[in-house]
Amino acid sequence: MTDLLLVHGSCHGAWCWRDVIPALAAEGLTARAIDLPAHGDDPTPASDARLEGYARAILDAIDRPTIVVGHSMAGFPISLAAEMDPERVAMLVYVCAYVPVSGHSLARMRKDGPRQPLAPAIRLSEDRVTFSFDPAMIEDKFYHDCPPGTVDFAARHLCPEPVLPQETPVILTGRYGSVPRHYIRCTEDRAIPPEYQETMAAAFPPGHVTTLPTSHSPFFAAPEALAARLRRIADSLG
Questions:
Q1: Residue 97 belongs to a domain with what CATH number?
Q2: What is the pLDDT confidence band of residue 44, given thresholds at 50, 70 and 90?
Q3: What average pLDDT score do residues 17-43 get?
Q4: Sheet of 31-34, strand order
């Protein structure tokens, strides 16, 4: 059975997968989560964070073909990791995540979306190195359907998000294109518009796009359902 590596989105860390890892174990899957540079317990200064560094951290965490699962912002570094070393990435799974357009940055793709639901919640630091989310808005934007205690837990762990990696364009070639891809669209998402998720996954093969009726945080809202979905996707590898 192929292992899974779980990669968090903006301002989050490995901690956001706390309920999914045991749910995946119950499905018979081995999964690990990592902190990207400058997130969670990783000591990298935010000013030193780079998109390529995110991708290298992903590759450093795997030594054999692995299913790499990316949430939200992580769609960019998991794609770059596949471009850099497709032999180590057995499959990419985007969980309500950005699917890069070659030559575009995440910041550009966010602005190109049909709506900007996160814009009112973003707070740019004075030095413009990082941004954070307004604590008063995180429940509505990320966790509105999550169990009691989720907002308090997340608020204690959310960190400032480095700006530069999100302003860095990614160049993708056939190396990235050679890796199988799946997309899990979250239909109640208030961070990345569900219709934009549908657009980003429009070129995926038939049967490689599925939905979950959750917010932007299915790892808290429906960890067992997410784990079961990932199991079915992993089984599709044969």
A1: 3.40.50.1820
A2: very high
A3: 97
A4: 31-34, 4-7, 66-71, 89-95, 181-186, 209-212
Q: Is 92 helix (H, G, I), strand (E, B) or coil?
A: strand
Ramachandran quadrant class, 183 (left: phi over 0; alpha: psi -120 to 50; beta: rest): beta
- Interval 18-46 mean pLDDT: 97
| Number of domains the chain contains | 1
**In contact, 54 and 68? CB cutoff 8 Å:** no
Quote the mean pLDDT of the chain.
Answer: 97
Beta bridge partners of 7: 34, 70
Q: What are phi and psi of 217, to 5 degrees?
A: -125, 65
pLDDT at 2: 79
Give the residue numbers spanning the domain of 136.
Answer: 4-235
Dihedrals phi, psi of 214, to nearest 5 degrees:
-130, 175
